[in-house]
Design a protein that fits this description.
The complex is a heterodimer. Chain A is an alpha/beta fold. Chain A has 2 domains: about 170 residues, 3-Layer(aba) Sandwich (Rossmann fold); about 120 residues, Rossmann fold. Chain A has 14 helices and 12 strands. Chain A has a 7-stranded mixed sheet with strand order 2-1-3-4-6-5-10, with helices on both faces. Chain A has a 5-stranded mixed sheet with strand order 7-9-8-11-12, sandwiched between helices. Chain A starts with a helix and ends with a helix. Chain B is of the alpha/beta class. Chain B has a single domain, classed as Rossmann fold, CATH 3.40.50. In chain B, strand 5, helix 8 and strand 6 form a beta-alpha-beta unit. Chain B is globular. Classes of the chains: A alpha/beta, B alpha/beta. The interface between A and B is medium-sized, with 28 and 31 residues.
């Protein structure tokens, strides 16, 4: 097998069940494979675990400082010269503050730049609403040419990051924070961009989840199974391009669809699925997501519970579709 | 061939006249546009494309070409004109300014040969040019990157993020040209938000600064020829210019930041610009 396989246990351990660190580990393999790869930091060297990169490739590292707009512009300029920039940043800042640079300099100009956006959702729970990224999927998936990926665990984050080498355009990779993201994906399976993976079979109801909510969807499916309800679970790791086939198939084969995401209700995964189904195949839906409000201060898991982003909430949503 | 300085300046001034005629031609085709900022930039664009920059118009993607980013993208009529005169694009494209499905719209589009980036949303170009200059350093390429900024554009804070980074990394293969025509869209910049002391601002950010008359071809050529002005520092050229330069009724007024151009206005402008 290749060098990746031989060091799998190493990067897995160093990732410590956090997708943000798996991104940093995958960059090391990208550095070896792609001599044109360059890493940029917005004062985020530890957030994405890139100190090993800095030690190994000092000439292919640029610290930008806390200047997200400049980080995206510089990355765009680098890309025009044939390099492959990877921008390491905080999701709540890079997506919102640099939105215009991402739209114009990356999406409109279609430059091959990958944004590693860590600490997404409410992972910075105690930091408060100023530091929550609950609109980023809505912003990022609304732009032509963008690819939007939300890995569910470190295995998927690692493979998805490697997969960016073959994407001819800008990529937004949404990564978690310090709250552990337990393994949920099959680490012997390949990562296929734009193709949802079915983690549980079932023809009663379907849960379509992304990111940290995939694990909760699996727990919900297991709980429903005890009551004789077969809840299919789709891991929708690619929000754009969206896997229309898997969604339409689920709509045809099951009684309804529940989406689950750590993102505000408006415009995220649920919105993307609803846009498709409303036009192609109107289907009963429930959305498990952050309501239209700013979260209070608190630990991430407690905030998920408070705002209805939990396995119990997914179970209740599934049941309501089967009444 | 060894061109004398006199011959060089004469050749460039002739191209600059032609550039102004061509940009007004584009404005007529579009029914109007940004005459003021296109005209103030015209002499420096001429010196870049017909003298200073190392380019292969027949091979616009040549990896070692010098880069030019028009951050003040609303001066695209002037960029289109210079690209046509230099042979990057078909001259006939100038007559399709603003036309339906034309690649030559109000702002530069990277799909047009010779255009390095989609610009015009202000405050983007200096970051992009910094990335290009960094790309040259990482790949050990000899090219120089130029970026032209509007003066009112400097109100955008992102410029100063880029200014800080370019100086920190000692990118002496980067030159920012400020087209300092003193007028923004709504009036005189001094009355909007003052930029002064502009040269000191750049110096304090770590740039080597030179102030020139942006319409004096001799000064322009001499300054471009001396780049980088300082080893280990990016250069900022603050070019004092006249908005609408060359056409009396468009000069030094915010009313000609952008305005309508019909056949009559066009003819009047050309009569003042003289033959190329």
């Amino acid at each position: 097998m290749n060098s990746a396989t031989s060091t799998t246990s190493q990067w897995r351990e160093k990732s410590d069940n956090q997708t943000r660190l798996a991104f940093g580990q995958a960059l090391l393999e990208i550095g070896a494979r792609e001599p044109g790869s360059v890493v940029l930091s917005a004062d985020t060297q530890d957030l994405l675990g890139i100190r090993p990169w800095i030690a190994k490739y000092p000439d292919r590292f640029i610290e930008i400082g806390i200047a997200e707009q400049n980080a995206i512009g510089v990355a765009s300029g680098l890309a025009t010269t044939g390099l492959r920039p990877y921008v390491c940043a905080y999701a709540p800042f890079i997506a919102a503050r640099s939105m215009e640079q991402i739209r114009n300099d990356l999406a409109y100009a279609n430059q091959r730049v990958v944004i590693g956006a860590a600490a997404s959702g409410i992972s910075l729970g105690v930091a408060g609403g100023t530091h929550h990224a609950l609109e980023d999927l809505a912003l990022m998936r609304s732009m032509p040419n963008m690819t939007v990926i939300v890995p569910a665990d470190v295995n998927e984050a690692y493979l998805a990051t490697l997969a960016t080498l073959d994407i001819d355009g800008p990529v937004y990779m949404r990564l978690g924070g310090r709250t552990p993201e337990p393994p949920v994906t099959d680490d012997s399976a390949a990562f296929t961009l734009g193709r949802a993976s079915r983690l549980r079979p079932g023809n009663d109801v379907t849960v379509i989840a992304c990111g940290a909510m995939v694990e909760l969807a699996l727990r919900a499916s297991d709980a429903l199974k005890a009551d004789g309800i077969a809840a299919r679970v789709l891991n929708m790791h690619t929000i754009k391009p969206l896997d229309h086939d898997a969604i339409l198939q689920a709509a045809a084969e099951t009684s309804g669809i529940v989406t689950a995401e750590e993102h505000r209700y408006a415009g995220g995964l649920g919105g993307a699925v609803a846009e498709l189904l409303a036009v192609e195949q109107p289907t009963p839906m429930r959305m498990v997501a952050m309501p239209d409000e700013f979260a209070v201060v608190g630990p991430t898991v407690a905030l998920r519970e408070k705002y209805g982003m939990s396995a119990d909430a997914i179970v209740a949503a599934c049941r309501s579709l089967l009444l | 061939m060894n061109e004398t300085r006199e011959a060089l300046l004469e050749r460039l001034e002739k191209e600059a006249r032609q550039l102004r005629r061509n940009l007004w031609r584009a404005l007529r085709a579009g029914g109007g546009g940004h005459a003021g900022g296109s005209s103030s930039a015209a002499d420096m664009l001429t010196a870049l494309y017909f003298h200073r920059m190392n380019l292969k118009p027949a091979e616009p993607e040549w990896p070692d070409r010098d880069r030019f980013v028009l951050s003040k993208g609303h001066a695209n009529a002037a960029l289109g004109a210079v690209l046509a005169q230099a042979g990057f694009i078909d001259d006939a494209l100038l007559d399709r300014f603003y036309h339906f499905e034309s690649p030559f719209g109000m702002h530069p589009d990277i799909k047009v040969a010779g255009v390095e980036m989609c610009t015009g949303a202000l405050g983007h170009g200096l970051s992009i040019a910094t990335g290009m200059a960094f790309g040259a350093r990482i790949q050990k390429k000899p090219f120089h990157t130029f970026v032209m900024l509007g003066d009112a554009e400097l109100h955008e804070g992102s410029n100063w993020e880029a200014a800080m980074a370019a100086a920190h990394y000692r990118l002496d293969n980067l030159t920012a040209i400020v087209d300092h025509n003193k007028i923004g869209q709504s009036g005189r910049i001094e009355e909007l938000i003052s930029l002064d002391p502009l040269a000191d601002k750049w110096r304090s950010f770590g740039w080597e600064v030179r102030e020139i008359d942006g319409h004096d071809m001799g000064q322009i050529v001499d300054t471009f020829g001396a780049l980088p002005l300082s080893k280990n520092r990016p250069t900022a050229i603050i070019a004092h210019t006249v908005k609408g330069k060359g056409v009396s009724f468009a000069e030094d007024t915010y009313l000609w930041h952008s305005n309508s151009v019909n056949d009559e206005v066009h003819a009047k402008a050309l009569s003042e610009l003289g033959e190329a």
